[in-house]
Amino acid sequence: MAREGRNCLLKDQSRIYYIESIMRVMLYFGPAGYPEGSKSPIDALEIVHRLGLNALEVQFVRQARMEERKARSFGSRAEELGILLSAHAPYYINFNSVKRTTVNKSVEWVLRTARIADQMGAWVIVFHAASYSGKSPRRATNAVIRGLQRCKELMEEEGLNSKLGLETMGKKGTWGTLAEIGEVIKVVEGVVPVVDFGHIHARSNGYFGSAGDFREIIDEVEAIYDDHMHCHFSCIEYTDAGEKRHLPLAAKDPDFSFLAEVLTGIHRNATVISETPLLEKDALRMKNMVGSI
Fold first, then answer.
1. Do the domain assignments include residue 180?
2. Helical segments of the chain, H only
3. Total domains in the fold of the chain
4. Among 90, 121, 123, which residue's Cα sits nearest to residue 107?
5. How many helices (H) and strands (E) does the chain have?
6. CATH code for the domain in which residue 191 is found
7. In the β-sheet with 163-167, what is the strand arrangement from edge to edge?
8. How many Å apart are CA 227 and CA 230, to the nearest integer?
9. C-alpha dihedral over 189, 202, 221, 106, to 10 degrees?
10. Taking the model in full, what pTM does it have?
11. Across-strand partners of 230?
12. Can you say whether the dihedral through the CA atoms of 277, 213, 169, 204 is positive or negative?
């Protein structure tokens, strides 16, 4: 084959691969918790599906408990409906606590959540890893690394495969900047970032003011992790100390329309979980805003 003709063929093949990669991208939208009016976990899935949503983050923030039979039934129905599941572990986790009992309990809370996540087929466990507890950010990061290494050892012993999702945090006294999470990802296999845009906005006193600002954060995420991106979004009220409370999408602080613009151009799978007070209603608004661009 002539060089010129071969080059044209390679260009055509490259374009085909590029187009196929875009076509394979999936965006998932859903609420953090069961929709309003849910009578049971299965009913929650049915409502999510009827609304046209395809993700659900199950909240175990007070206690990680669900009978195995129910968890497996729940997971099977989610799979039938095409709903991607994640799970949020208890709020009490703190791998940097000055109390050894709290650190040990933190490992157990992650494990309890991981067992249920495995039974229901949730791909990632989301959690808040630590407070600074009067220690330096570096020492807190090292404590998180040690805690997660222990979690991974025990999970591997039990054959539990869910990813461990470190959430970016909104209060300045809490461990969990994107840079800190990146340091952990370098060391502990199976850890992924969970990008809470509202938290980032609050912690930095109003970071997001344009689509470019959202693109910048996503670029930072891609520099440390190149697979399925799991995100939380809520508008948020904040003070000099950071996050105060979550607000509905209509508050536009930050404005989801900027993120919607960026999401239409990404070339990777991503989940956006609504953490606004309106949960599934705002999840549907987010999906529709992205779809209308």
1. yes
2. 3-23, 41-50, 68-81, 100-120, 137-158, 178-187, 197-203, 211-224, 256-263, 280-291
3. 1
4. 90
5. 10, 10
6. 3.20.20.150
7. 27-31, 270-274, 229-233, 191-196, 163-167, 124-127, 84-88, 55-59
8. 9
9. 10
10. 0.90
11. 194, 271
12. negative
Amino acid at the residue 78: A
Q: Is 156 within the bounds of a domain? A: yes
In a domain, 229, yes or no: yes
**Distance between CA atoms of residues 199 and 233, nearest Å:** 8
Q: What amino acid is encoded at 111 in this protein?
A: L
Is 93 a domain residue? yes
Q: What is the pLDDT of residues 92-135, one digit of tens each?
A: 999 999 999 999 999 999 999 999 999 999 999 999 999 999 99
Residue 14 burial (C-beta neighbours within 10 Å; 0-12, 13-18, 19+): exposed
pLDDT tens by residue, 166-223: 999 999 999 999 999 999 999 999 999 999 999 999 999 999 999 999 999 999 999 9
Tell me which amino acid residue 178 is. L
**Cβ atoms of residues 46 and 56 within 8 Å:** no
The parent domain of residue 38 ranges over 28-291
Q: List, in order, residues 6 or more apart from 259 with CB less than 8 Å away.
A: 197, 208, 211, 214, 233, 272
